[in-house]
From TrEMBL:
Catalytic activity: L-glutaminyl-[protein] + H2O = L-glutamyl-[protein] + NH4(+)
Organism name: Celeribacter ethanolicus
Alphabetical list of SUPFAM superfamilies matching this protein: CNF1/YfiH-like putative cysteine hydrolases
Keyword Cytoplasm applies: no
Protein name: Probable chemoreceptor glutamine deamidase CheD
InterPro entries in the cross-refs: CheD-like_sf, Chemorcpt_Glu_NH3ase_CheD, Cytotoxic_necrot_fac-like_cat
Keywords per UniProt: Chemotaxis, Hydrolase
EC number: 3.5.1.44
Stated role: Probably deamidates glutamine residues to glutamate on methyl-accepting chemotaxis receptors (MCPs), playing an important role in chemotaxis.
Gene Ontology biological-process annotations: chemotaxis
A GO molecular function held by the record: protein-glutamine glutaminase activity
Family designation: Belongs to the CheD family.
């Protein structure tokens, strides 16, 4: 596996796993992922109508690791640079963030650290965060329509029981919790 794992979402469902990101500019494109303590950031440029989602494990890792896209700062830069390559402008980017759950009470604080990291990163980079669903104790299935900037999530108690389905018709809200 390479350190950069960009997928192209083009008119169908594209699933991303930890350390991956996907970019799309087609209205029919849907990017999805399943999160526990990991965080997914959905970024889009409403003028260029291009967007993308990443999925990272921890805010930062040891410099010796080869899978750098699994760590927050690298995952954010890879997604931003990928969007710019596809016509987005950094100053127009908008964000929605998901994940950061405490999946195993008292075992690790990774979810909280991920949530704190992503909000701090967005503030530092002057990228407005239009919606967030961080924390809690349940896994999430997140779907993002990158050309439209719309996201939705489903909280699940057992992520292994999730069955992928077609997205429901367009809603009036940009952030739908179902």
């Amino acid at each position: 596996m390479t350190t950069i794992s960009e997928k192209r979402a083009s008119g169908s469902r594209t699933y991303i796993a930890q350390g991956e990101y996907a970019i799309g500019d087609c209205e029919a494109a849907v990017i999805s992922t399943i999160l526990g303590s990991c965080v997914a950031t959905c970024l889009w440029d409403p003028v260029a109508r291009v967007g993308g989602m990443n999925h990272f494990l921890l805010p930062e890792g040891p410099p010796s690791r080869s899978d750098v896209s699994s760590f927050g700062a690298n995952a954010m830069e890879l997604l931003i640079n990928g969007l710019i390559r596809h016509g987005a402008r950094r100053e127009r980017l908008r964000a929605k963030v998901f994940g950061g759950a405490e999946m195993y009470k008292g075992l690790t604080n990774a979810g909280n650290q991920n949530g704190t990291f992503v909000l701090s990163y967005l503030e530092r980079e002057n990228i407005p965060c239009d919606g967030q669903s961080l924390g809690g104790a349940q896994a999430r299935r997140v779907e993002f329509m990158p050309a439209l900037g719309k996201a939705r999530q489903k909280l699940v108690s057992d992520a292994s029981q999730i069955v992928e389905k077609r997205p429901t018709p367009e809603r009036t809200s940009d952030l739908e919790l179902f």
